[in-house]
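Two quick folds needed for the group meeting slides. Do the first one here.
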Amino acid sequence: MKYDISLTVNGDTYNLAVEAWQTLNEVLREDLNLTGTKLGCGSGDCGACTVIVDGKSVSSCLTLAVEMDGRQILTVEGLAPSGETLHPIQEAFIEKGAIQCGFCTPGMELSALNLLETNPRPNDTQIRSAISGNLCRCTGYNKIVDAIAEAGRRMKPQSKARR
């Protein structure tokens, strides 16, 4: 049996029929073709599938799509203000070398956004705590922490990604 839901993803509204067992990750990747949200562990441990739902970080692999009816969702595709301009977080990740294989990057960037919107000038300990649910096997985290701190310096306090 399918359930009709309405999602607003990156500012666009979608009306979908989903199975009760489908995860938000599956719907984003397979139905909406938003493949920036990765599926890593499938158990909520790695953070690769992190998205922002109504202003909070969520593991999309553990979240049922039917529970998202009427919700506002931000994926990495909605982070940049346009196809021509990167978000300050994305710029800082590139400039600081915080991207290696890139698999964890979308989840890291969204966790960073969630932190910087509430604490625009976090210290290293606060940054490490905010990304503690995101695993990276390539960078050793120092460059990621540096990138998030730099993004915080660049972001205007009132600026927000598209929602």
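Then this one, please, same format:
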Amino acid sequence: MKKNVSFTFGLSLLLAVVSLSGCKSPETNPAGVYGSNYGGTSSYGALDGGSIPMANRFSGGLEHPGMFSPVYFAYDSSQVSATERSKVESIANYLKQNNSATVIIEGHCDERGSREYNLALGERRALAVRTYLIDLGISAERIQTKSYGEEKPANPGHDEAAWTANRRAEFVLYY
């Protein structure tokens, strides 16, 4: 009988540990975690590697969704092209004039490639825009990145026009 109680207790303890090991705070999005509750991979740059709860990162709310045009990318590229740089420069100018504003850069991809590859490519695209904003004088602490990969297409089609529209970085401003 004593052996049965020990076995039951040990099994219960093991199940509790296993069930808790998959849990994480719903508001925390560590850098590099795929498929998180915040929609993909994240990089919080010079902040703290992503351990600050999302609710504490920004106060205020979304400012004018779609206020800035998306930055588009060539196929399988994360390089901000010369034709797209003026869009990033307009965002930098806005951020310079609005010191309380912060931005999340969301990286997106077309449907081609694996989910993991597209999440990584979306992150590289967002980071390329982030780097350009920093080079233009915006503090790294005011810029975050997030990758949706192929999960949020701008155009749900399955042709070149749709793929071109889906290879982008978008901007969410907070105050």
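Slide caption for protein two: Strands lie at 41-43, 71-72, 102-108, 143-149, 168-174.
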